[in-house]
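seq as requested:
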Amino acid sequence: FLALGNGRYIELFAPDPEAGFLKSLIGVDGGRQPRLSTFCCDAGAVGIDNLVARLSKMVDRKEYFPSSVEAGSRTNEKDGSVISWRIAVDKHSVSWNDLPMGGLLPFFIDWGEYRDIRPALTAPSGCALQSLTAHHPDATKLR
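struct tokens:
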């Protein structure tokens, strides 16, 4: 984790070659070169259930947006504390080649009661995101 300021952070994922298997999740399984595979948006302000319900009504884009919300948690290895969240990631639980719109559409997270200790606020800081540009060969589908 690395805090980027203004409530943003970056979390780096990589396959574990020692694990003996590769779970398809957010495109981590594809290729050997480091790259941005996709991104996540904090849905806490609008409510993740409401957002997923609204997006699921977009029939012409249903294959792109999450259709379910599940719980997740992680234990801090340093102090044993647990942080939990709710996440809408079902369309992103795929390999690199199958990410919605090549990874240019986000998945969503809601930190709930852990909002004040989410990684954007607690991760080491000192970096800032200056810009981010994305391109897709069929960009009209992203509108």
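Strands lie at 2-5, 8-10, 40-42, 70-75, 82-88, 107-110.
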